[in-house]
Amino acid sequence: MESIAAPNDHTADVGAPAETVILVGNPNVGKSLLFKNLTNRFVVVSNYPGTTVEVMRARAGFNGRSVEVIDTPGINDVVPRSDDVKVTLQLLNDHPAGTIVQVADAKNLRRALYLTLQLAELGRPMILVLNMMDELADRGGRVDFERLSEILGIPVVGTVATRKQGMDALVEEIERANVPSLAEAYRDAERDGQFVTSRARLATVHRMIEDTYSIEKPRNASLQVRLGFWAMHPFKGLAFLAAVLLLVFWFVGLFGAGTLVDLMEVGLFEQRISPTAISAVDALLPFPHEHIIDNVEHPVGLPLTPIHDVTIVNLDKVAKLPEYSLPEGLVFSAGQKVMRFFHDLLVGEYGLITMALSYALAIVLPIVTTFFLVFSILEDSGYFPRMAVMVNRVFRLMGLNGKAVLPMILGLGCATMATMTTRILETRKERLVTIMLLALAVPCSAQLGVLLAMMAALSPAAAGVWIIVVIAVLLVVGRLSSSVFGGETSEFILEIPPMRKPQLANVLVKTGSRLNWYLREVIPIFIIGTAILFILDRLDLLAVIATTAEPLVAGWLGLPEEMANAFLVGFLRRDFGAVYILEAAIGDNPVLSSHQILVAMVTITLFMPCIANFLMIAREQGMKVAASMLAFTIPFAFLVGGVVNYLGRWLLGT
Amino acid sequence: MCNLVRCPSCSYEFAEIYPKTSWLSRLFSRQSPMASGNLPVDVRAVSELPFGTVAEVLCVGGTSRGREDRLAVFGLVPESEITVIQQRPSCVIKIDETELALDPEIASEILVRVVRESERVA
Question: Please, which residues bridge with residue A66 across strands?
Answer without folding.
Answer: A61
